[in-house]
């Protein structure tokens, strides 16, 4: 499912900004499921909670603070470095190399960024498995963001100031519509990446983010084909 890109909407783009998890690699890879399990285990051990209660706490923190880590920092003063190391101690072998995606990203004119709520090590490990790491100019991770996750406006402001990104000259690709609210307000062209073969009505696309339909310019379930289409029409 893709609403095909209008080449005119991307002809001016010189900065290409990509989320990492479930955006640069397909959702069915299920890499984040491993991280999810480790976050639940971390909370269970930290607060001496049974797994089911720890999971409920994890989701509560995520909804209130944007990331589980931010919530644990605010409520329990955890060491973020320890948290990031433990939850990203995962098996990256499910991530398969994607030469076509790499070729498409490499061919995009201008700078390419990974902008993630994860840490740099996780981003590098994932992008290296995909075979696309060398095609990116910068990785902006949760540490560079001052541990303040998307969708906080201050996080985008830090990214823009650090890399001198002009909103109208940028495009952002994300798997969460709420993380496209600020980019849209800044003038970026926004693309929501949904799971492969995702075939709901367009109304159902917004089930997780019902208030952010106006923040999304395009929806695609095939990032490689979407980028290839942009390049073919330039």
Summarize the structure in words:
The chain is of the alpha/beta class and 234 residues long. The chain has 2 domains: 7-26 and 97-233, HAD superfamily/HAD-like (Rossmann fold), CATH 3.40.50; 31-87, Orthogonal Bundle (DNA polymerase, domain 1), CATH 1.10.150. The protein is 44% helix and 11% strand. The protein has 11 helices and 6 strands. It has helices spanning 7-10, 31-47, 51-65, 68-76, 80-87, 99-107, 120-130, 153-163, 181-185, 202-205, 223-233, and strands at residues 15-18, 111-115, 138-140, 170-174, 189-193, 218-220. Strands 3-2-1-4-5-6 form a 6-stranded parallel beta sheet, with helices on one face. Strand 5, helix 10 and strand 6 form a beta-alpha-beta unit. The model is unreliable at 200-207 (pLDDT under 50).
Could you list some keywords that capture this structure?
234 residues, alpha/beta, Rossmann fold, DNA polymerase, domain 1, six-stranded parallel β-sheet, 44% helix
Classification by helices and strands = alpha/beta
Count of separate structural domains: 2
Main β-sheet description = 6 strands, parallel
Question: What percent of residues adopt helix (DSSP H or I)?
Answer: 40-55%
What are the low-pLDDT stretches, counting only 5+ consecutive residues below 50? Answer: 200-207
Which second-level CATH architecture of the largest domain applies?
3-Layer(aba) Sandwich
Report strand order across the widest sheet: 3-2-1-4-5-6
- Determine the CATH superfamily of the largest domain: HAD superfamily/HAD-like
Our measurement of the CA-to-CA distance between the termini, rounded to an integer number of angstroms, reads 22 Å
Number of strands: 6
CATH topology of the largest domain: Rossmann fold
Determine and state the CATH class of the largest domain: Alpha Beta
């Amino acid at each position: 499912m893709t609403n095909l890109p209008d080449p005119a909407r991307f002809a001016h783009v010189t900065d290409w900004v990509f989320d990492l998890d479930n955006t640069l690699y397909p959702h069915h890879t299920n890499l984040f499921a491993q991280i999810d399990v480790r976050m639940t285990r971390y909370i269970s051990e930290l607060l001496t909670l049974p797994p089911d209660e720890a999971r409920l706490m994890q989701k509560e923190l995520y909804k209130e603070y944007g990331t589980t880590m931010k919530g644990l920092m605010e409520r329990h003063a955890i060491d973020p470095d320890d948290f990031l190391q433990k939850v990203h101690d995962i098996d990256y072998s499910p991530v398969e190399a994607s030469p076509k995606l790499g070729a498409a990203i490499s061919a995009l004119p201008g700078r390419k960024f990974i902008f993630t709520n994860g840490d740099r090590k996780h981003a590098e490990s994932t992008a290296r498995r995909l075979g696309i790491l060398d095609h990116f100019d910068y990785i902006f991770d949760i540490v560079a963001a001052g541990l303040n996750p998307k969708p906080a406006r201050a996080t985008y402001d830090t990214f823009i100031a650090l890399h001198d990104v002009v909103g109208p000259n940028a495009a952002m690709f994300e798997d969460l519509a709420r993380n496209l609210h600020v980019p849209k307000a800044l003038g970026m062209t926004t693309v929501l990446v949904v799971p492969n073969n995702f075939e709901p009505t367009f109304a159902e696309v917004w089930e997780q983010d019902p208030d952010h339909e106006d923040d999304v310019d395009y929806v695609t379930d095939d990032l490689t084909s979407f980028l290839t289409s942009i390049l073919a029409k330039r």
